[in-house]
Request: fold
Amino acid sequence: MQASSSIWSGRYVALLLATFAYFLTMGIMLPILPVHVKVALHGGGREMGLVIGAFGFSALLFRPLAGYLGDRFGRRPIAVGGAFIVAVSVFMYSQCTTVASLSVARFITGIGEAFVFVAVLSMISDIIAPQGRGRAFNFFTIALYAGMSVGPLAGEFLYQEYFTRYVWLFGAATAASAGAIFLLLGETNANCGGRPRIRLIHPAALRPGLILIASVFGLAGFNAFVPLYAKMLHLSGSALLFAVFACALIATRILGAGLPERLGNETMTKIALACSAGGLVLIGLSNSLPMVLAATLVFSVGQAFAFPVLTAIAVAKAGPSDRAAVLATFSAFLDAGFCFSPMILGLIADHVRLETIFFICAAVSVAGFIGIFRAAPASVVAH
Reply:
């Protein structure tokens, strides 16, 4: 398929709609899972880390297979299959009565996530020419966070007005609707049918991925522990914080879409890591709703820029025959952060004050700023 220099087309808009529907499912679970594990399943920090981390672990484990299948058989089959795997596994949550069974269901969700995420990024890379990919990935992340902002509100409404089971049923339905949209799309990879080899680590994605993991570690900690931190601050729930984060991130990406071109990707990476670290420290120091909202805004600015820029950098070095493999490796660093940080932080959470978790996440962003960023050559972060 010929990539287009204009990003707007019917197919691209359909991809954005499917992205919104899929990440609506992901957002619905954010404020509910930690509370469900603690209240309904009587779990502590370790159990919460296991349930949340199981998702990231399986997504990380199955990324190489997703990349291989996408380059070998096409993007649409893995997008459709992944979305329906997620739908079935989220429905399974309603039948889980133990931490072990919920962890298994979350593991299956991660498999579907591996397929969907690689497929959508590859589809965008297939239909958009290189000069338009930065903007295309930017609007992809806007659709993503639109779903993640609406999802927590819907999840908490269903949780408070009905039962947890209805949260999972609604989440399964939105994932299935994303699968239906993928089903209607044609194949975007005209070069599928070869026999690419499975690469656990594609070298073109290594350095951008190492920079990315320093950023997402803090986001994983934010997602996992903000619901409990909101209760500690005597707030009615955490949906407002998640919604503010997502809306501020979307606004930053829209208003700041031209900043990487003007300031350079190197400068934007520094800004992203610095704002992430500063926002996390401020969250840990917050003792009221206005303070934690202001801290969340700072944190959202840091999270707004890293992923779109680094994704474009990674895929720029890939050809059509190994594009999914590069994106599989790159997105695996995303999974590594979401997998290992909840597990590590869950083990720590039972022994420290909750605000310390946010200071630890900030330290990881600082380490990324000092260590990983300096280790990357200029070619990694240059235009």
